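Quick one: structure for this chain?
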Amino acid sequence: MAIDLSDFDVEEVEGQVAHLTDELDWRDLQESQDCLITVQYNEIDLGRTPYHFNQPFEGNEANLYFQRMKEFSELTVNYIVDHSDYKAHFNRTDIRGNLKMLFDSINPNIAKANPLIFHFALDPESTVTNASRATGVRNPRVYFMIGYNGMIHILFFDPFHELNPIK
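Got it. Here's what it folds into:
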């Protein structure tokens, strides 16, 4: 589903940048998942938590990040969810456990706003199942929230798969 910009005031569309504490209407979230993805960095963690983007990327992780962003920018969230296999690890993430504790450390109102959070694996071909900060074995995930009009807001870089670990 494409947005016909003739139906919108361009300034109104451009001005709709979501924040973690915003309570987005479910209709906006539903519609956004059917729009082509655009990437927004207004909520990116650059040092507030241990899952910030100022920590070192190793090996080809930076290349993989931009490959994934390019791939996603040609699709919708719903298309990716409906057409990717489990290996892509493109999943909705409940706000509980480690992720809820992280949000609460930033602002307790985030969990109350209940943003729609997803994460994806940087390397969908990775066979690592024992990621661990203690051993240095990585299996990176990137977390983002759904915003307006197809925007995904990049949030966290989780190199050791700790925020939503394999059970």
